[in-house]
Description:
The strands form 2 sheets. A 7-stranded mixed beta sheet has the order 5-6-4-3-7-8-9, sandwiched between helices. Helix 8 (153-166) links the parallel strand 7 and strand 8 (170-173). It is an alpha/beta fold. It has 2 domains: 6-76, Winged helix-like DNA-binding domain superfamily/Winged helix DNA-binding domain (Arc Repressor Mutant, subunit A, Orthogonal Bundle); 82-194, NAD(P)-binding Rossmann-like Domain (Rossmann fold), CATH 3.40.50. Helices cover 47% and strands 18% of the residues. The protein has helices at 6-24, 32-39, 43-51, 65-76, 91-97, 101-104, 135-142, 153-166, 192-207; strands spanning 29-30, 63-64, 82-87, 107-114, 123-124, 127-131, 146-149, 170-173, 186-189. The protein starts with 5 loop residues before the first helix and ends with a helix.
Amino acid sequence: MTAFGSKALHRLPLYLRVLRELGRDGRSHASGSVLAAALGLDPIVVRKDLARTGVRGTPRVGFPIAELVDALERLTGAASEQTAVLAGVGRLGSALLGYPGFRRQGLRIVAAFDAAPERCNLILAGTPVFPANSITEKVMRLGVPLGILTVPAERAQRVAEQMVAGGIRAIWNFTPAQLEVPEEVIVQREDLAVSLAVLLHRIQERAD
Length: 208
């Protein structure tokens, strides 16, 4: 099993989703061409990605789905459950709490936090919501490695510091803020405005 580049890593959950669907349909094997067609990808790229999993395929038969699913679950972390906390229970935060795909990917949000008193002491999508000033204490007690940030941008740095003080090792940042955290803390930023700008640009390019 060899290392994957960042683009290949983004493709792995897509392969996993399609392979699980094929497995539920009773299929035992799948070729790179089948996955490529289902996802609109180059078959050569797909075959190279699958080869890196260490699972061997058979000509004209394809790759064993069960083995590929096991390998991809290990690579994506879906084989073992990871826990997380979420800060900011507004529209986006509430939507993420209710997203069922996280569980399928091996992620369970065990606590949420918000600064608004009316949102605290509620249970949203099965997740308890606590006051924002208890982040460090709760994270430390729960031993959670991942924090999800959906707070307003002006509060992001402060909340990130509270998370890190509690022992958070990685932050999934859905705010436009550039976080300053210790070097050992991983930050994955999801800038929805940038993604939208890229999408609109591509639409315009096709229109032209």
